[in-house]
Each structure stands twice: as C-alpha cells, then as structure tokens.
Amino acid sequence: MGFEVMEAMQSMGHELVALGTDSDTGLRAIVAIHSTALGPALGGTRMYPYPHDEAALDDALRLAEGMTLKSAAAGLALGGGKAVIIGDPARHKTPALLRAYGRLVDRLGGAYITAEDVGTTVEDMLAIADTTRWVSGLPQAAGGSGDPSPLTARGVLAAMRAVATHLWGSADLADRRVAVQGVGKVGLALAHMLARVGARVLVSDLDGEIARRVAAETGGSSLDPDEVMSAECDVLAPCALGGVLDDHTIPMLRCAAIVGSANNQLAEDRHALLLAERGILYAPDFVVNAGGVINISVEFGVNGYEPEVAGARVDAIESQLASILTEADARGLTPSEAATELATKRIDRARSARPVGHLASTAVSVTP
Q1: For residue range 297-326, what is the model confidence (pLDDT) as tens digits?
Q2: Which of 49, 191, 207, 266 has the most beta carbons within 10 angstroms of its beta carbon?
Q3: Measured distance CA(287)–CA(73) in Å, rounded
Q4: What is the pLDDT of residues 227-272, one digit of tens each?
C-alpha cells in the first residue's frame, strides 16, 4: 500500500493505521485509528473476504471515521477506530488467528480497544482477550456487556420514535410500515421489536429463506433484495452493509424516512442533499446506530457493566436525535450536517486542549 495509505489517512484526518500479518495463522489485518481526542479509539473488528487490500483499507478508514462521529455525537469519552481482518470468517477464522490478532491490538498499547462486528462474535472476543486486555464486549459472565446487537436495535427503535414524532406528531409506530433490509443480528432484533410495538414489518435479506422465516415470526411479509429499496413504506431501515444510498437507489425510494443500523449508508456525503431534495428524512446512521457503542461504554464505568444504565442511555438516542432534527430544521441544514457539526465541535474542543506530543498522523506496520 505504501504512500497511498498515508495519503488516504491524511485526507480523512486519521491518526494511525497499523498493518498486521502472521504467517503461521494467515492473519492479514488493518487497524485504523481515526481520533483519540476524546479518549481511546473504540471500534469493532470486522472479518470479511474483501476482494483486494485497497477495499479493506477503505472500509477500515471509513468505519473508523464513523466511530469517531458516533462516540462524539453520543457524548462519550471515546475516540474512533475500526479494524478489519481480511478473510472469510466461515473458512479462515481460527482461535490461533484471533490470538495473533490480539497481539497486534496489544502492540498499540491501549490506543485502540476492539469489540465484535460483522464476522466476529462475543466468543471471538474471548479468544482475542487471551493476548490483549484491550478488548470489550466480552460475555456478561466474564464481566463484559455481551452481544451489543440487541442494544443497537433498541437504539434504532428509539431513533424511529424520534423520527415519527418529528414527521407525524406521535412516537407511536403502530401500523407504520417499516422495511428492514438485512436481518442479521441487529436487523433480526429490530424486526421483532417493531412487531411488538405493532409496526407492519417488511423483511428483506440476501438469504430469502431467512427473510421468509423472520417475516412469519413477526407477522410481516418478505421482499426480494431487489425490491426493498423501492418498497412503499413509512420507514426504510438499512441494517446490512453500507453504501446503499446512491445515485441509483435514491430515485427509486418510496419511503418517508430512513432510519437504520448499517454504517456509512450514504455512498457519498452529497447523497444526504439528494435525499433532502426528495423530501426524505435521513436520520444520520452514526446517531441512530450508537446503541452498541453506548452499551459497551458502560463497561468502563466505576461500577462496571450495568444493564439498566446501558438501556437508559441507549433510550436517550430518541431525545438526542429529536434535538438534532429540530436544529437542522431551524438552520436549514440536513440532519447529517447538524449531527456532524455537533460531533466535530466536541472533537475540536478536545483536540485543542490536548498536550503537545499527542498521537500524530502516522502509519505503522507490525507483525504480531
């Protein structure tokens, strides 16, 4: 990757990128630290069979930046980072590989704290914890907060209530048509939560059998993957991978709002303006999906992880998003612009107060 890494980092304001390999286990990993201005960079480890190294780097950089905004907007004393392991988790993930990855994380000395993400699990965090203490999201029996997916889904539901109040004058989601794109761990939990509050759930997934099963469980209906973006609904909830809102999909949308858990739903920042021009309310993903990181942040409290505290803080996403939507309307901004400004101001204040010699933009290559 060479100097291309430095150029990509500097263009997005990252502090550090670590490239790690291990010949014994086949580990090939990238850890991207976007900002530690507010605290150590917390972010999950994604394992995915990227088509090439540049795609893995781009994903790590974009996800790390999103984590910075997510933690800052949520008012957490945490920075933003993300890691990717290149490989198919079903074929290449082994305890030895995870322990080798843990050694890579450990060499960063606490600047980055990992957790689970797409392709990794709570149980994987236990294997990583064998070789580093800079890991979160461990099972509750081991003193951690466990799987963050239910709390992420709870935060998405809270965000939907804020959007419903903003658009229709009531937080009640009963009889609202909500199309859930992707029913992995978060999307599955969200679909069931929506059903419990009386929403009419539309389910789509690349695995049609799973979509039909979840639709049956929630009393909803299933959609083919190529139908969900044009489905007539009140709320579209992207809950799979990012980049789904682009020049091709935005013109076909038939929803009033977009409120989902996927990271980086906008293919480009300019797509927030295209959505606004179409009269579609886009709730910024890094505000909507902050429930997971908020949940994990409770682990660092003086009393350790407290589920009730975590739940209350995740529910506060409703009032936070409501404030952002009100601010955006008052100033003629998109919600994305208002939320990004909120997060950036907090980061800038912290950065201006940090001591000389704080971690600067650099790239390192290490072998665990």
Answers
A1: 999 988 999 999 999 999 999 999 999 999
A2: 191
A3: 7
A4: 999 999 999 999 998 899 999 999 999 999 999 999 999 999 999 9
Q: Please give the radius of gyration of the chain, using alpha carbons only, rounded to the nearest integer.
A: 20
CA separation for the pair 206, 188 (Å, rounded):
13
Q: Burial-class residue 299 by CB neighbours within 10 Å (0-12, 13-18, 19+).
A: buried
pLDDT at 241: 83
d(CA 353, CA 253) in angstroms, rounded, equals 44
| DSSP string for 151-207 | HHHHHHHHHHHHHHHHHHS----TT-EEEEE--SHHHHHHHHHHHHTT-EEEEE-SS
Question: Mean pLDDT for the chain?
Answer: 93
Three-state secondary-structure class, residue 267: coil
Can you give the pTM of this predicted structure?
Answer: 0.90
Annotated catalytic residue: which of 70, 82, 93, 185?
82
> In the structure encoding, which two tokens stand for residue 357, read together?
């010699």
